[in-house]
């Protein structure tokens, strides 16, 4: 009976170690995704297309709040044309990991200042951003935003 318990204990110990490593990796990935969510929004605010290309995959696609689908190339052309996106405050409510995919969901507020207006118009949205792990870092592959009243 004692001979049978040693392999069992070793298996339990190994499984516990694997679970601990996975939990630490998820915590590290969670922090990295939160950092990147702030970073890419700041790059968008600064119209920094060079930095955005490093964060977005070649296949990056957006289903925007106006119900239009735009590719990475289309968005970069809009930025290069001088368009300035409004400031956005994003509240991440959940990050879910599935292997090398991270799904970020939450709420955001866009602040639009029209010419001559003193205060910004606030547009509320729900969003989903999808990240994929490539070359040991996370890249934004897709985004969806939906206007809401809340």
UniProtKB/TrEMBL annotation:
Keywords: Signal. InterPro entries: DUF4440, NTF2-like_dom_sf. The keyword Signal applies. Pfam families: DUF4440 (PF14534). Residues 33-140 form the DUF4440 domain. It comes from the Bacteria. Residues 1-23 form the signal peptide. This is DUF4440 domain-containing protein.
């Amino acid at each position: 009976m004692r001979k049978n318990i040693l392999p069992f204990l070793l298996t339990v110990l190994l499984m516990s170690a694997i679970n601990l490593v996975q939990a630490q990796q998820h915590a590290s990935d969670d922090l990295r995704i939160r950092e990147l969510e702030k970073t890419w929004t700041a790059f968008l605010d600064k119209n920094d297309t060079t930095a955005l290309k490093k964060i977005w995959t070649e296949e990056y696609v957006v289903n925007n709040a106006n119900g239009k689908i735009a590719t990475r190339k289309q968005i970069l052309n809009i930025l290069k044309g001088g368009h300035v996106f409004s400031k956005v405050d994003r509240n991440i409510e959940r990050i879910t990991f599935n292997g090398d995919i991270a799904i970020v969901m939450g709420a955001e507020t866009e602040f639009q200042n029209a010419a001559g207006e003193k205060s910004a118009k606030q547009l509320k949205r729900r969003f989903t951003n999808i990240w994929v792990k490539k070359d040991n870092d996370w890249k934004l592959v897709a985004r969806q935003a939906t206007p809401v009243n809340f």
